[in-house]
Task: inverse folding
């Protein structure tokens, strides 16, 4: 079962790497995504929606 | 390592009576002719581990629940399937999962997806399926649930962000349009440009001698200049308010009179009437699909509840016509519902427009202290609120009688009269103020400037909101795209690993023959969840295997793909070691099958393998291959001798049958003795039919009875193997007379049975026991077969039983090591070429002569 988790993790890492390289995505958002994953909330559309609503506000604008 | 020790099945598929397969942790090679119940054991394991039998699911009218139980199972009984594991724990259909030790739980968790079973009919499915179906078939192999759930959530969030972007775009359009209309700009961009607005306003300001407006940030200065001009008219604020109120009132009056309840009301009444006569709930899709099922596959069973009905085509036509009529009738309702919904939307928009116009007007009436006007407007707003709440409900909740009552409270005529009275009052007040003709343009312009100020800010706010929403939508879409890319790249990485293994397995199984090379599975980047096969064929690069591969090559490819996937799945679940190949090896040609069998036994040596086959010769090959691959001790080889509806598969070993017969010969009833002796004789004949290569008239299913094999058996031994006949002729001759006893006494009741004495039956049984001892070796557990040399000699595999040709000395069969040595090692991996074979054959004949 260990390997199964690691593939999801690898996909997540690859995703974050791509997000970091993309200039249109605020870097704070990538950090928040990592937190969401730790809280196992990545499959929660509402949590992701709230995260997106942060775009254009406060720290997110300074990226 | 967890292994299956024992499987018990009763009342499931072809297994009628309780049947136990004691594996003791070994792999299993199971032979049985077609229709003898081999696959029933595979189905039973799949049912136990996954909850269903995949071959019984997804086909019209067939399901595990209804068609899994044996047809002879008694009403109220349920099938029994249980597996005992090496951890001294048992798992059964009764469900005892909670109490199992953790390693067994892990094993069962990994076994929940049937990714370890390959059946003959599935072998080409994967290759011939479409790319998206192929992805779906591969999906259970890939631990992508988390990634896919994230993508689903992202997709939802992205759609929401996109719909927010559309909404803000509409607001911005509306704000720009209102601003452009206020200043009288015909053609404008979104957002309306500052310079364009300033130019339009400057024309009007310059007409009354006020300088041009260069920027809207100077709007305050222009308003101040106008206020200075208006100061000489006294309370200009009140004047401005009066003119503004008059203008707003005119707008409101026309908007109120434009409100049209009739269309929506009529449509709603009509819809409710239709619903009352037809039905409230309408499952169009269900009816449509049901209609298609019935037309395409008239099985005489309801596709929804499986209740049988008459199979007459006339009944089907009546049913189809009824469903069609119902669909037509229902489609009318759906159309009415859509029309009513559209009219409701229009009505709500016009009511909200009245609401929007009323609010600023109310503020102005308050400033003017117009008490009657305020009362009128409050009444209008209250009534509006009620109407909007009522009409804004879900359409199916809007009751026509409530709507009629609410509309009745909305008195357009009275409102028009009272608005007119209010307008007259305001105009009268305005008329009393000095030089209205001079004041009016000033007041109007002052009012316009205030309004433009307000609208410009509204447009700016809408623009900010829209830019924000657009940015969020863009970020969400980028996040989703990158998540999909990351998953596809990772999946491709997995496929690269699997492809490498597939290529390697295929190469080994085909002995490195040319043809399909560099086999690989690839994700189609442009399509979500889609996988293609790619290969090279001689000098053609990147082609699909189906384009050039022969049937044999495609069969091999299907099998090797399954094996590569199985091995990859094992990497994720190292403790789960089950591999079931249900009659798949005989799908490929003999040469490839031998190599593949060797490959499986060598490369999957640490798996618990269940192999089934319906081919007797292939069963014997597989036993030889077990020896060559030195895994014979790891296998339990079982033969299903026959299958009957009442008893199911007969899996007994010949020695067991012999022991049972011996016990019956002591104190058994005559019919029992005859039946059991007959069964043993049948078993002997079935086995020796192959070893002696007897010519028997072909029969469907190859389930021969004694009478059909005996003559060929007797004649072959008497005439072809004199060494055997010399020693056992008496037994053979006795049986040639007595074999029908089994049918007279043991199988059917008839008049003959009363004439057969017990003594005769005992003699029949004893003779068969004797024959069995002559043809079956207890040491190597093999029936005798013709020796390679000398010709006409019969012997068992180990040489314990030898019937030499009269006048010749008995020759023991060579041991495997001796053959390997004689063939200079070529026999080791079964790659004997013709030259080596003849060399070895000459050596054998030479041995006979020495």
Result:
């Amino acid at each position: 079962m260990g390997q199964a988790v690691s593939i999801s993790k690898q996909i997540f890492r690859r995703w974050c790497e791509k997000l970091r390289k993309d200039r249109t995505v605020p870097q704070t958002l990538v950090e928040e995504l990592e937190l969401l994953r730790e809280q196992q909330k990545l499959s929660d559309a509402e949590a992701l929606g709230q995260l997106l609503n942060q775009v254009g506000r406060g720290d997110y604008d300074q990226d | 390592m967890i292994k299956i020790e024992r499987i018990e099945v009763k009342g499931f598929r072809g297994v009628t009576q309780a049947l136990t397969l004691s594996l003791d942790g070994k792999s299993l090679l199971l032979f049985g002719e077609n229709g003898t119940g081999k696959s029933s054991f595979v189905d039973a394991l799949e049912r136990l581990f996954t909850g269903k039998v995949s071959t019984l699911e997804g086909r019209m009218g067939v399901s595990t629940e209804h068609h899994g139980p044996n047809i002879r199972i008694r009403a109220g009984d349920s099938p029994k399937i249980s597996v005992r594991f090496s951890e001294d724990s048992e798992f059964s259909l009764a469900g005892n999962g909670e109490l199992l030790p953790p390693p067994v739980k892990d094993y069962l968790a990994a076994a929940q997806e049937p990714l370890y079973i390959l059946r003959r009919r599935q072998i080409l499915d994967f290759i011939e399926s479409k790319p998206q179906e192929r992805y779906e078939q591969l999906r259970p192999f890939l631990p992508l649930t988390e990634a896919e759930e994230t993508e689903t959530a992202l997709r939802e969030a992205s759609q929401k962000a996109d719909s927010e972007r559309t909404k803000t775009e509409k607001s911005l359009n509306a704000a720009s349009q209102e601003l452009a209309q206020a200043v009288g700009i015909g053609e404008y961009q979104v957002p309306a440009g500052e310079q364009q607005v300033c130019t339009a306003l400057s024309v009007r300001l310059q007409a009354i001698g006020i300088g041009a407006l260069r920027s809207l940030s100077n709007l305050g200065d222009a308003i101040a200049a106008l206020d200075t001009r208006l100061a000489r008219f006294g309370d200009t604020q009140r004047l401005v308010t009066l003119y503004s109120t008059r203008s707003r009132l005119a707008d409101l009056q026309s908007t109120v009179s434009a409100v049209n309840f009739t269309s929506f009301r009529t449509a709603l009444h009509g819809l409710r009437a239709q619903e009352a006569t037809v039905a409230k709930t309408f499952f169009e899709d269900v009816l449509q699909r049901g209609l298609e099922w019935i037309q395409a596959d008239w099985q005489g069973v309801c596709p929804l509840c499986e209740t049988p009905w008459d199979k007459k085509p006339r009944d089907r036509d009546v049913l189809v016509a009824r469903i069609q009529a119902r669909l037509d009738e229902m489609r009318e309702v759906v159309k009415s519902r859509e029309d009513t919904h559209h009219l409701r939307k229009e009505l709500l928009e016009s009511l909200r427009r009245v609401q929007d116009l009323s609010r600023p007007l109310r503020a102005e009436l308050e400033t003017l202290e117009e008490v009657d006007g305020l009362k009128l407007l409050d009444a209008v707003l209250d009534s509006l609120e009620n109407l909007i709440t009522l009409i804004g409900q879900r359409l199916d909740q809007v009751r026509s009688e409530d709507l009629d009552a609410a509309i009745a409270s909305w008195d357009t005529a009275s409102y028009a009269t009272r608005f007119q009275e209010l307008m007259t009052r305001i105009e009268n007040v305005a008329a009393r103020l000095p030089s209205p003709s001079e004041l009016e343009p000033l007041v109007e312009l002052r009012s316009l400037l205030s309004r433009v100020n307000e609208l410009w800010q509204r447009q700016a706010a809408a623009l900010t909101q829209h830019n924000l929403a657009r940015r969020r939508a863009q970020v969400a879409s980028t996040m989703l795209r990158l998540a999909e890319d990351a998953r596809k790249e990772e999946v491709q990485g997995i496929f690269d690993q699997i492809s490498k293994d597939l290529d390697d397995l295929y190469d080994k199984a085909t002995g490195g023959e040319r043809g399909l090379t560099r086999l690989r599975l690839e994700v189609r980047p442009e399509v979500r969840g889609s996988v293609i096969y790619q290969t090279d064929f001689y000098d053609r690069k990147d082609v699909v295997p189906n384009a050039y591969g022969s049937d044999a090559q495609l069969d091999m490819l299907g099998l090797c793909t399954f094996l590569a996937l199985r091995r990859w799945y094992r990497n994720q679940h190292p403790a789960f070691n089950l591999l079931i190949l249900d009659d798949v090896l005989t799908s490929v040609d003999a040469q490839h099958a031998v190599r593949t069998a060797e490959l499986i036994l060598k490369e999957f040596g640490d798996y618990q393998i269940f192999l089934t086959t319906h081919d007797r010769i292939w069963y014997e090959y597989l036993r030889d291959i077990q020896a060559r691959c030195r895994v014979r001790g790891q296998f339990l080889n079982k033969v299903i001798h026959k299958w009957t509806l009442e008893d199911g598969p007969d899996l007994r070993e010949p020695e067991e049958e012999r022991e049972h017969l011996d016990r019956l010969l002591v104190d058994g009833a005559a019919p029992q003795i005859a039946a059991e002796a007959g069964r043993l004789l049948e078993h002997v004949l079935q086995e020796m039919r192959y070893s002696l290569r007897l010519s028997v008239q072909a029969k469907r299913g190859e389930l021969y009875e004694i009478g059909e094999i005996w003559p060929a058996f007797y004649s072959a031994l008497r005439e072809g193997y004199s060494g055997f006949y010399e020693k056992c002729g008496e037994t053979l001759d006795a049986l040639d007379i007595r074999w029908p006893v089994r049918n007279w006494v043991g199988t059917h009741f008839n008049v003959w049975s009363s004439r057969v004495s017990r003594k005769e039956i005992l003699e029949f049984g004893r003779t068969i026991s004797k024959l069995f001892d002559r043809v079956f070796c207890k040491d190597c557990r093999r029936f005798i077969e013709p020796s390679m040399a000398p010709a006409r000699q019969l012997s068992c595999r180990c040489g314990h039983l030898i019937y030499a040709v009269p006048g010749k000395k008995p020759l023991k069969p060579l041991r495997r090591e001796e053959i390997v040595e004689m063939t200079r090692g070529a026999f080791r991996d079964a790659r004997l070429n013709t030259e080596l074979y003849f060399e070895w054959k000459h050596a054998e004949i030479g041995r006979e002569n020495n």
In short: Residues 1-5 of chain A have pLDDT under 50 and may be disordered.
